[in-house]
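Subject: for your reference before the review

Hello V.,

The reviewers asked for a structural picture of the protein, and I figured it would be easier to keep everything in one thread rather than splitting it across files. Below is the amino acid sequence we used in the manuscript, unchanged from the supplementary table.
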Amino acid sequence: MQENPISNSLSKTDSNEASNPIRSLMPFRYGPLCYAIVDVEIGLTDHRIHDIGALRYDGAIFHKASKEELLPFLERVEYLCGHNIIHHDAKYLFEDRQIPWRLVDTLYLSPLLFPERPYHRLVKDDKLLSDQMNNPVNDCEKARDLLLDEMARWDAWPEQKRRLFTALLRNQPEFDGFLDLMGAGLKNCDLREQIATVYRGRICQNVELEPLIEHYPCELAYALALIDTTDHRSITPGWVLHNYPSVEFIIKKLRYTPCLAGCTYCNSQLDVHRSLKSLFGYNAFRTYEGEPLQERAAQAAVEGRSLLAIFPTGGGKSLTFQLPALMAGLSVHGLTVVISPLQSLMKDQVDNLAERGITEAVTINGMLDPITRALAIEKVQDGTAALLYISPEMLRSATIERILLARNVVRFVIDEAHCFSSWGQDFRVDYLYIGHFIRKYQQKKGSKLPIPVSCFTATAKQKVIQDIRDYFKQTLDLNLELFASKATRTNLSYSVLHVDNDEEKYQRLRELIADSQCPTIVYVSRTRRTRELASRLTHDGFRALPFNGKMDSDEKITNQEAFMNDHVRIIVATSAFGMGVDKSDVGLVIHYDISDSLENYVQEAGRAGRNPHLHARCYVLYGDSDLDKHFILLNQTKLSIGEIQQVWKAVKELTRQRMRVNSSALEIARQAGWDGSGSDIETRVRTALAALEQAGYLERGNNVPHVYATGITARNLDEARRRLTASPLFDSKETEQAVRIIKSLISKKYIAKAQDSEAESRIDYLADILGMSKREVISAVERMRQEGILADSKDLSAYLLGTGDSERKSQQLLERFIQLERYLLHRIPEEGLCISCKQLNEDAIQEGIGTSKEKDIRTLLYFLTVKGYLRKQEDADHNLQLRQQTDQQSTEARFDKRAEICRFAIGWLYRQAAELTRTLMQPNATGQEHTVADNAVQFSIVELLNQFKADNRTMLFERNDLQLGEVEEALLYLSKIGALKLEGGFLVLYNAMDIRRIKDNKSRYKVDDYRLLNAFYKQKIQQVHIVGEYANLMVKDYNAALQFVQDYFQMDYRRFIAKYFRGERINEIQRNLTPKKYEQLFGSLSPRQMEIISDKESHCIVVAAGPGSGKTRVLVHKLTSLLLLEDVKHEQLLMLTFSRAAATEFKQRLMVLIGNAAHFVEIKTFHSYCFDLLGRIGNLEDAQDIVSRAARMIEQGEVEPNKIGKTVLVIDEAQDMADDEYALVTALMTRNEEMRVIAVGDDDQNIYEFRGSDSDYMFQLAQRPEARFIEMTDNFRSARHPVTFDNEFVRSIPKRMKHTPIKSMRSEEGWVSVTHHTSEIMYQPLVDELRCHRHAGTSCILTQTNEEAVILTGLLRKEGVPCKLIQSMDGFRFWNLSEIRYFLRYLDKRVTTPVIPGELWEEARHATSNTYGRSQNLELVKRCFEQFEHLNQTKYISDFKEFVFESSMEDFCDVSGSEVMVSTIHKAKGREFDDVYMLLTDNYTKNAELMRRYYVGITRAKNRLFIHTNGHCFDRLTADRHDHDDRSYTLPEEIVLQLSHRDVYLEFFKGIKREVLALQSGDSLQYHDFTFYTEKTGLPVAKLSTRMQKTLTDWFTKGYRVKSATVSFIVAWKPKDAPKEEPETAVLLADLTLTL
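And here is what came back from the structure prediction:
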């Protein structure tokens, strides 16, 4: 290959002509000239001469690589000719030596002599077209043919023109030789006069030519040559513009700078009125209320000014930039680039112009298929296009940059310019790159004058206008001239109709439509509603069609045309409709949903009455809740600072080893912890990257895949075709594709600029210009390398951290995935599988694959789907529908083959790495040693294939059967599973964006960096309030509302706000809630509670919440605030609790505040969340250490980022954290450095020390840097006396976090009495007091032990007091109840999908009720079902199992009734009662834990507290009454013993499962000799344990006997150490009633 800054390549001409000896002589009239044509081949890498070819005038041929031997060959030569000989071949041939020959360069002459499309047949751009590689003699023949044609063309020119060009080009080294050859001598002439004469009527007569002649003679010559063309699509080649950048400046001076005096050319060609008529057929410009806004802006553009035009809807914005663009295309062959965010609108504008017969407009965007894209690129390259529409993101494309550099860009037009301003209604960070791109473009072009810019927007307030102008002044030093109208539309009338509900709104809509017979647009805010409303209207007799941006393009076009052509008169649309649509007779616009800003409302309403003679009506149907919908939508679409911080953290993680990486948006999203399933995920990632780039954290390069097709070994196209046809690697279609690639590469063998030598062989460029997909190009290139048609190129990089351990880890990882993949293959049956990923992982672990992780399963499923093994569908809740696409046997064989390749690849690459390490052990220039991380192992896919084939190990398959695609698949597999970090090669298909980290790894994205985006979102919130204010004003005062709108657009924004929003209202419009909704949600909270709600900044908030202070309420409202006011999306919020009951209560309360949105908030117990992290379903075996395992996995980076990528963590009952929970919290905080933590608890209520809880962990959180500690001590629960009593008591507890006493916020006094007993038995006096004082409120008796609670329950029942025992589940879980197990078994047998169908759920409920109709536990079970239904819109079987697994009996105990509750203190925590009676026996050590337990008990009382104790803890405390009771009490006559697992002989139940399961809770039993028998059959069904037999014997000695026995629970059980396969047995737990 020849490295050549300016192309030297040649193309096929007639072979007979090339070999004709007559062509080897100069025409006779030139005499016997002595000349030679020379061509030199230079190596791309070594920059040395590889071959030389020369043709001499006498027919002699030279073809050797020696320049020394060339010199004798050239001895008698006078003229040395060649294509780019002056700046390329001569430089290598003669270096610094004196050149004795006159040099004639065909390259520089070609654009002068053949400037017209299709140019010279042998030339493309700067290249001579050729079908041969590395044949300089063939190239010499082509150069000679070109030279002869150039000479003939020169001779054909008129004498005057020859003299003119001779005068311009004399003494220029590129042209002197040719002028000598042609005998062109200088003659005295007035060059200025000659140019004016020859080009009269084709250039401005008043242009100053003298400076151009003096300073830019060559540039002027090229400009005049272009002017000579008759086809305006002819363009100056890009290489000329690069070498002579002033050509563009000169042609603009000559042809596109209107003179003040006015001349023939300017008056005809630069007259906007004439061009309007000739190009568009219009006689006059559109005026806006009499103002010639369109004409003035178009004229300014023609005059080369930069401008900002505020064009109202229907103001003819498009024509204002299209007309100057087409005029520039005709006059200076220029290109206007239109940048717009609306891809569909671009296509509409191109199509609309095409309908007018104007085909000079094209669009290039991501939605185009490869062929359409290639055609559009070709139109820009060959000069056909005068208008190019692109999106801001396309400015990142290397292809776009390249084709623009080759064109004369005369103007950049930016549509939707309000996107530059954070004060606009649609700020886009990617717009801020536009100025940077234009500046970079101008620098690369060497532009003499700045390229003008036109900005357009439909509506803009003063601050937005200023922002746009400031932006261009700062980035490009441009002053934008403002074109804006102050007039308002007089043919539109506006009305706002207030409605109370959706049904009233619809009825008003029908009435308005029925009263009108004109074309009508109904605007709604959500895409789904377009269809719903259009369908309902049609059903009601008003035919309507929907339109929204997410529709299929064919349907959009059909519906739009039906409306435009009056086939339907009603269209129900989102704001996407109407952009670029010009229908003049729309007489009615109805906003069914109010717009989210006045700008958008005015723009949308302005689509009515385009005909100024038509009076049109604009209605808003406005309800009080309409604004809330906009706030919710804004919150969902907003990119918060937390999300940008997550993306920055992801970038830091991805660039840990090196500063520059190529990553896809999806890869970054996953690394950031985002759920990668959202449809807008790519946009959100790009926006975050743009924000980071704007703030200087990173730099995004062009989206360039660094993969090249270089090193052609075939000598010509015919040879390449023969070799391709003969190859078994290519079918006929693939052969043709490969031939097209080779043809393109050969024709571009020599490149104009050294830095572009790779550009035209890069795969994305080839794909763009050939209309192929990148995958097709890469596949063809790799196989041509395999065949040797292209030289192999090491374009894959493996980044390895070292050898030894790393290799072993990679191999172990591979084997782990191979095992898991085999399992998945056999798990998916032929008919397919519907399952959750979590369940798949659980099943894999149960099958013995202990290393299985949900993350790994997702990775494998993704890979297998991409490679076509599986078809995978995933619903919104991530449940999977899986089906195998290939038969199992062949799939297994392919898996085995891939595994072999993978094992070999890891070993071979690590050997290469070891070799590289040895090579690099030498110190580098800085004296430091290299590491392998600095230097990746470079290799190619073909190289790896050949290495594998050469390996002599035994394989499971024939080596020669190995295909390139199989090696590619193996490498992709290794890359995806993380066994190797690979980049480049075919992997560019999976990585799009080039990102370079600038700031160091410790830097954090700060609030100040977020300033612009934050200002924009604040503006969006205010805009919604402002449009709501407008609606309310319209209802009350029409004129005041119109003045409001006028002030909004014309006043300084701050003055506008000060005028209309005074006092507290200034705060109201900062919130994304309406004042009414805000009051409804937060109006009743106390100042201290609001302090917590309002804190949006603190990194860590620790709240010590005293009893009754509204802890739950504050947390629920804080969750609401986070979701509605603090930019936290539901998937970024995590709340952890210690019990399922607490999680349920929070979810239920949240639903009351925010409705169904609460379903999407993750509120889980610590255990449930950790099972989730591990991809497991809750089970008893793993529950013990699940939290610590999860914490370890987070620390080791083994958990998917999207599962832990939270921006806010809320912890309930923080004082109950034990070592494991705190380890989990700290692991989450470490992995999410920007995560906010809100922990609420009461250290005084930590009563679970026996299971490791320690309030010191809550204290440690409060001591962290950036933590804020808040005390909540206002008690809204309890009356004054109980609170005073509590405060005095709590002083006895050491090491407290709170220092402020609790304060009762109630006015009632309440009551506290303490009765001190000398008797240890106090049941009877407590019950007597309860009977004496009991009233209509709720009452509860609290005890320290379950046994005491059971005895009191029996005594109350005997005394006729209705009561309910909050039962204990000592030794078993609610999950184990036979009633629950029956329900689960019923579902498991019938459910076939992860979701439980509604009918099956009801059927299972009904079956359970029928089967357990007499069970006393049935009500509990029913409440369990009801609670789950309420919390879960969709019922997943795994969710239900988890819900039940985590639930306790007391969770479903109804405490709202009139019965007296009897409970232990532990079970009453978190509950409250009007009256509390406490039984406290003095049998315990007086430590802090006991004091806290007592404190929990006494603080349950709202009004009255009655304590019965035989201890002295309360003696000195203030109470309404202190009594002393010296009486002695005995145990009650009747005692109920509630048996637990410890009380029965468990082995006894083996073998009698059926008999036990035949019984139900409440059934009577017979008791005899420590054994229970069924009442009906007399079969033994339970036996007391030795321990319980002793206990019962003790009762017998006290005079008690067994009165009766009943079944309390039937539960599932098996020993902890039992094998997994051992079935569970059924255990009977009875209530045993004893009597004296």
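For the response letter, the relevant points are probably these. The chain is about 45% helix and 15% strand. The first helix runs from residue 15 to 19.

Happy to draft the paragraph if you're swamped.

O.
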